[in-house]
Amino acid sequence: MIKLNIERMIRMRGHGNPLHYLQEQGFSYRACYIMLKGSVTLVKFNQLEHLCRLLHCTPNDLLEWTPKEETPEELSLPLAKLLRRGTYSPLVGAIQGIPPSKLDKALELLKKLGEEE
């Protein structure tokens, strides 16, 4: 099954309350609730574009695929790129664990990663 998982991207971008963040960005409470609960059956292209612009991502980054069975045939499908395993630990939390003496080096590495694309 393919579903919209925008909460993952919102948290990756460092926003703690996805519902509040989306409302601040112009989405109605109802639209936010439906998108965040995973009960979306229709996504308008203008909403999808708005989300991608806000979160600096592609539609693929917002989608998640769960196969019916994890067989080798299923996992070899192009859809397998949309598999999201495990939970995401926010970058902010990871940065908090870095000793202050190494924060400059972490920032340099992050800048390099951003330039690669």
From TrEMBL:
Keyword DNA-binding (UniProt): yes
GO molecular function term, any single one: DNA binding
InterPro entries in the cross-refs: Cro/C1-type_HTH
UniProt keyword list: DNA-binding
Superkingdom per UniProt: Bacteria
Every HTH cro/C1-type domain range: 26-68
Protein name: DNA-binding Xre family transcriptional regulator
